[in-house]
Amino acid sequence: MARRSKPLKAPDKLVFLLSFVPYLLERRVVDVAEAAQHFGMTEEEIRDAVRLIATSGLPGSTGTYQPNDLFDIDWDSFEDDDVIVIVHHVAIDDAPRLSAREAAALMAGLQYLSASPESAGSASLASLRAKLAAGASSAPSRLGVAETEADASLALIREAVAEGRQLEFDYLNARGERGRRRADPLRIISQDADWYLQAYCHTREDVRNFRVDRMSDLVLTDEPIGDHSHRIVPDTLFQGSESDLDVVVDVSPAALPLLSDYLADSSSREVDGRLRVTLRLAHVHGLKRLVAGLPGLVTVVAPPEARAAVADWASAGLAGYPEHGTAESDARSPHPGDGTA
């Protein structure tokens, strides 16, 4: 491993030391050369860090540093054998600990990741779950992660990608149109809570992104995928197009970073305490889910068809509630009319 030619800056050195001490405590006995290899540092930098740790601690009740208030190491092993052994440490046991509920929630997430084929049997995930359980303030609750329909589809899609076989499926697009597709799966991408299949669609004769939870009746065929080495497969999930629609919205300043993937440019101006920006979307129907995810934080300003799409969608949702189930009550609702959901 290459060694740095420049010394660490103070913030980087602090981050290193905060990682170095738990590393030494977990390993218990560590060779200087081994530690240098692990952190990508020179052996002399590791020795300097050990000497610094030995002068660190917390003042006792007298306000002065007594022997038991400092870290201590086995100096004979360090100086004679180049081996690091911490024989006394302070402050580490006072670190905040996760509650049982917090640890259980994190462990459930790791359990979900462990169920995916690429993470099955991962020793790292198993070790992390054990550490979370040991570090919690009390025994975490035992949780089970139920498999969703999307999870079952995802397993079949992963198999298709791994084996290079075509998929057939019904797909419901953002416009509410359903159709049967045949596609050559290329790769799987996740964004936030959603999974997408990036594939060459034989119907559209181009690379498309399919949201997994909108795919149904999947069939893994025996037909191998074609050669797509000549195609440019974008690294990011969504790409701009000349046919994209520019939509003007007013957004709360705190929510603006959540729209960064859709911004047409970096320009903005303040309007009544909000920022007026331009978003670039493939079609107006993409606004529905976007606005729903930021309730009260985004107002569609233009064009009129974008405002109408959001208003109609909000009215349809409102009609699903008994107390607002009539067309007359929908017409009186102030929210759909102003392009806010």
UniProtKB/TrEMBL annotation:
<dbReference type="Pfam" id="PF25583">
    <property type="entry name" value="WCX"/>
</dbReference>
<feature type="domain" description="WCX">
    <location>
        <begin position="245"/>
        <end position="316"/>
    </location>
</feature>
<dbReference type="InterPro" id="IPR057727">
    <property type="entry name" value="WCX_dom"/>
</dbReference>
<feature type="domain" description="WYL">
    <location>
        <begin position="154"/>
        <end position="218"/>
    </location>
</feature>
<feature type="compositionally biased region" description="Basic and acidic residues">
    <location>
        <begin position="325"/>
        <end position="335"/>
    </location>
</feature>
<dbReference type="InterPro" id="IPR043839">
    <property type="entry name" value="PafC_HTH"/>
</dbReference>
<dbReference type="InterPro" id="IPR028349">
    <property type="entry name" value="PafC-like"/>
</dbReference>
<dbReference type="InterPro" id="IPR026881">
    <property type="entry name" value="WYL_dom"/>
</dbReference>
<feature type="region of interest" description="Disordered">
    <location>
        <begin position="321"/>
        <end position="341"/>
    </location>
</feature>
<dbReference type="Pfam" id="PF13280">
    <property type="entry name" value="WYL"/>
</dbReference>
<keyword id="KW-0647">Proteasome</keyword>
<protein>
    <submittedName>
        <fullName>Proteasome accessory factor C</fullName>
    </submittedName>
</protein>
<dbReference type="GO" id="GO:0000502">
    <property type="term" value="C:proteasome complex"/>
</dbReference>
<dbReference type="InterPro" id="IPR051534">
    <property type="entry name" value="CBASS_pafABC_assoc_protein"/>
</dbReference>
<feature type="domain" description="PafC HTH">
    <location>
        <begin position="12"/>
        <end position="133"/>
    </location>
</feature>
<dbReference type="Pfam" id="PF19187">
    <property type="entry name" value="HTH_PafC"/>
</dbReference>
